Amino acid sequence: MKPVSTQPESNGTPEHVAIIMDGNRRWAEARGLPRAAGHAQGAEAVRRTVKAARQLGIRYLTLYGFSLENWKRPAREIADLMGLLRLYLRKEIDELHREGVRIRFIGDRSLLEPDIVSLIEVSEVKTEANTKLDLVVALSYGSRQEITNAVRKLVSDVVAGDVDADSIDEHMLEAHLYTSDMPDPALIVRTSGEKRISNFLLWQSAYSEFIFTDVLWPDFSRENLEESIEQFGRRERRYGATNA
Ligand code: IPE
Ligand code: IPE
Ligand code: MG
Prior knowledge:
By secondary structure, the chain is an alpha/beta fold. The chain has helices at residues 24-30, 35-56, 75-98, 114-127, 143-159, 170-174, 222-234; strands spanning 16-20, 60-67, 101-106, 133-141, 187-190, 209-212. The two termini are 32 Å apart.
């Protein structure tokens, strides 16, 4: 069953922050550098942000790293991104583990190279018991596909006679999402000035607060994260109710 947030509805540090890390290529383009350089700096921003999240007491940090739609990019660029992921997993896991970070991946693993799947599995198992910060990486992830798969599982339970169709409620659908054991993100930040959600956590963001910043992902800093949290603290979350 999905945990209910124990944190106040506003003011404090959000328990779960999700970030749509966007703008790597524009960062490189602005400097006359190859795209790969933008993605490499993006990986540095990931390191900085994970550290800052841990220090700021964020309990769950979800980073959108690669969407299902991103498979449509040129093979060379995909290879560069996967290369950076390999490097990150090989170089960072020991330190993340020492710092109490649990790493987990959400998305369609069947599309990933087998060696990446192994690296992911090893890092998940190694850090499973850590409780300081859950670093959730959305990789080969698409929210519509996640919801569609959940529906498919529910339908097969109904066909098998294990579930009565009339008994299906939102919690039963939620139980089949990758995020079934995490609170919903209170805050979703998107960098690079784009104001869209690009197939990210559609179900889970029903009551998220959104912050769009013009900062390109490779430039994203601890200060930017702190500012986002401050802005979040000034929002009034009503969940459809009145506060009169
Ligand atoms: C984000 O930066 C990284 C991924 C989506 C993989 P982009 O590569 O989308 O860079 P822009 O948005 O085109 O500048
Ligand atoms: C969204 O960024 C996906 C990730 C950040 C991983 P994109 O750059 O792929 O999204 P669009 O194409 O601008 O919507
Ligand atoms: Mg982009």
